[in-house]
Write a structure and sequence with these properties.
This protein is mainly beta. It is about 10% helix and about 30% strand. It contains 6 helices and 26 strands.
Length: about 375
């Protein structure tokens, strides 16, 4: 049986030598000369000045011009559900972190209008590598050793990242705490996060580069060439799997997890996205044998879903501060046009290709 995708071999385990200690809030005094967290290369394309770089939609009234967005780590184990705030995220990234479980990272262009979001969890380096090129602030409670090392290497922990030691950037939901472990009960919102970010002197100024090469919002959306995709089944591991079902009335894909609709408790709605990406990569274990690492150094292949249809794509990235790019199948590294809207990105191990499905047909069978 022929595989759908040609994925590169696993990246050798990265020997990051770092301690787990977290830095405290910035101290008063002269600020150090810091590099701006910009992509390692690019820009590879440009968008018009009136386009939101995270969604491709019109900026509109109240757009936070010249102010960074924020990425928040979100717990995604069964005991942490339902989450809050996920339905409002401009971007939502999900991948395996350890022992088969997945963790999410939601990204909001306007941190000030971010609703209650959580439960918040600790940083993982695969999410850090997706976050840095977005040019946003970063909110998390703790870090793995590898994530802490990466944040320190790029000096992100000094003025762009806010951790659990900044205790007033989050709160514990007391009612929820009665029945759950504390790690499933930690939340923030735009007002709370913003006040802490200003108090601790985070660098809020910056306009991010565009995430995708978007179809212009006032032009017709692009019809994907691969075929119809009413349902998309994504298997991360034996523990975690998701399904997206296309709703023709809204033109969006809605997410199921653990066999149930994935709900946003705050907004009282099911999570849905306009764009869904299923990207395959080599995902292996770090030397500790527990934490997962994603090989971003080699390009991979995947699928783009929008408007009830799909098409094959490739992704490329490279360095931790290089952007994740969606490019054509011809090897020219030309960024594809992506339709405007909210976007969900799944990074899945290439050993799961045959377990993922479109319309209940294995991806391996689709390419047979």
């Amino acid at each position: 049986m022929k595989r759908l995708l040609d994925i590169a071999a696993a990246l050798a385990a990265c020997a990051l030598l770092a301690c787990c200690a977290q830095p405290g809030p910035p101290q008063e005094g002269a600020a150090p000369a810091l590099p701006t967290p910009e992509p390692a290369e690019g820009p590879f394309f440009e968008l018009e000045a009136d386009v939101n770089p995270y969604t491709g939609l019109a900026k509109g009234e109240g757009y936070p011009e010249g102010v960074r967005g924020v990425a928040v780590m979100i717990n995604n184990v069964r005991a942490a559900l339902p989450q809050s705030g996920i339905s409002t995220a401009d971007l939502l990234y999900e991948t395996v972190t350890e022992s088969g479980i997945t963790r999410m990272m939601g990204v909001w262009r306007d941190y000030a209008s971010m609703p209650t979001v959580g439960p918040i969890r600790s940083a993982r380096d695969q999410h850090v590598q997706l976050m840095i090129p977005l040019g946003c602030l970063y909110a998390h409670i703790g870090s793995s050793t590898y994530a802490a090392e990466m944040l320190e290497t790029y000096r992100y922990d000094e003025v762009w990242s806010i951790d659990g030691r900044y205790r007033n950037f989050y709160w514990i939901d007391a009612e929820r705490r009665k029945s759950r472990d504390q790690e499933h009960c930690v939340y923030t919102n735009g007002e709370t996060f913003g006040a802490a970010a200003q108090q601790y002197g985070l660098d809020l100024a910056g306009e991010p580069a565009p995430v995708f090469r978007f179809v212009r919002y006032d032009q017709p959306p692009r019809e994907l060439a691969g075929g119809e995709a009413g349902t998309v089944y994504i298997r991360f591991s034996g523990y975690a799997a998701s399904e997206f079902r296309y709703d023709e009335a809204s033109g969006r894909y809605y997410k199921w997890e653990f066999g149930e609709p994935q709900k946003d408790e705050g907004a009282k709605v099911q999570y849905g996205a306009d764009n869904v990406f299923l990207l395959f990569a080599s995902i292996t274990k770090y030397p500790d044998g527990v934490l997962s690492q994603v090989n971003f150094a080699q390009q991979g292949a995947g699928l783009y879903f929008c408007g009830g249809r799909y098409e094959k794509v490739r992704w490329i990235k490279g360095a931790p501060n290089a952007p994740l790019r969606i490019v054509d199948q011809e090897g020219t590294e030309t960024d594809l046009f992506i339709n405007p809207g909210q976007t969900y990105v799944a990074l899945v191990g290439d050993d799961q290709i045959e377990n993922c499905r479109i319309n209940d047909v294995s991806l391996a069978d689709i390419n047979a």
